[in-house]
């Protein structure tokens, strides 16, 4: 985010409850009006309850206030930045979601997302295959396919970047705990 010159006046943190981006976005854009979007009704309710400040809390008068909303509550063309961290690989119909994102963004707004790709969890898949078990997860979508979906959704000149991270774990239980959290 430090490389981006645009300072959005408004932003959406999509699937905010589990996305682990709230502090990062607040630090990068302290003056932005933030909408935390959560499609899961239970997580939306928990997020709303968590964000309520007591009348005596300094949080009520400091910093930008974030509101929690369902995707259906978003106004069209209303935000400068839409941020979706590590959630797209869980979506059954990513094209439909990208169309929602495109409608929510203002003209010249921008989208940033991260997701798992086809190279993710190769070691885990190899272990499952060697043991004759079914695949541990659904196949991940290639970034080129996501780029095509973005264009089909009305986004102009998407820039896709792939970063390979190699993680090591102290035990198989630590690995499975991390995978389950994702």
| Total of helices | 7
Roughly how much helix do the residues carry, as a percent range?
25-40%
Give the overall silhouette.
globular
| Beta fraction | 15-25%
The spatial strand order of the largest sheet comes to: 3-2-1-4-5
Going by helix content, strand content and strand pairing, the class is: alpha/beta
Average pLDDT rating: 87
Q: What summary fits the major beta sheet?
A: 5 strands, parallel
The number of strands is 5
Supply database-style keywords.
alpha/beta; 5 strands; 182 residues
Task: Give an overview of the whole structure.
It contains 7 helices and 5 strands. The protein has a 5-stranded parallel beta sheet. Helix 4 (94-104) crosses helix 6 (143-152). Helices cover 34% and strands 17% of the residues. With 182 residues, it is of the alpha/beta class. Strand 2 (33-37), helix 3 and strand 3 form a beta-alpha-beta unit. The model has no long low-confidence stretch (mean pLDDT 87).
List the helices and strands and how they pair.
Layout: E1 10-14, H1 16-19, H2 22-28, E2 33-37, H3 41-51, E3 66-69, E4 79-85, H4 94-104, E5 105-114, H5 122-130, H6 143-152, H7 172-181
Parallel strand pairs: 1-2, 1-4, 2-3, 4-5
